[in-house]
Amino acid sequence: ADQLNGPQGGGLVIAAAIIPLLEHEGMHDEDVIRYATSERTFMNYLIKLIGIQAFPMTVLTHNPHEGRAYAIQCAGLGPLTPNTVLMGWPWWWRRDPATTLPAFVEAIHQCTQQ
Questions:
Q1: Are 17 and 67 in contact (CB under 8 A)?
Q2: Which of 54, 58, 35, 37 is nearest to 46 (CA)?
Q3: CA angle, 77 as apex, 10 and 69 as ends, to 5°?
Q4: E strand or H helix at 59
Q5: In 10 A of CB 91, how many CB atoms?
Q6: Is residue 104's pLDDT more than 60?
Q7: How far is residue 103's CA from residue 101's CA, in Å, rounded to a whole number?
Q8: Average pLDDT value for the chain
Q9: 64-74 helix and 97-112 helix, angle to the nearest 10 degrees
Q10: Global pTM?
Q11: Per-position b or e across 31-51, b if 16+ CB within 10 A of its CB
């Protein structure tokens, strides 16, 4: 696993994509699985193109907030677990700060509870 041999001697990077499902979609639907697989393949392509060593991960969920929590909880490889979580600042926060900012703070809280 070349992903564990970084330029500074090691480390584990996991790039996660949270894929929201429509109400009528199930996590075991063939189209959904194909989409998640193609997303993970594309992420792997981008990871190699950029030149970083990482594992791609896709999370299917009906609730993006829960999906983020699943990604944080499931990240890792055996005893190796992340000690840093990077998230993009929600650029749309000004549209509905009463909803967006608490959700972002909740994500930070989820990271510190692991």
A1: no
A2: 54
A3: 115
A4: strand 55-61
A5: 8
A6: yes
A7: 5
A8: 82
A9: 20
A10: 0.71
A11: ebeebbeeebeebeeebeeee
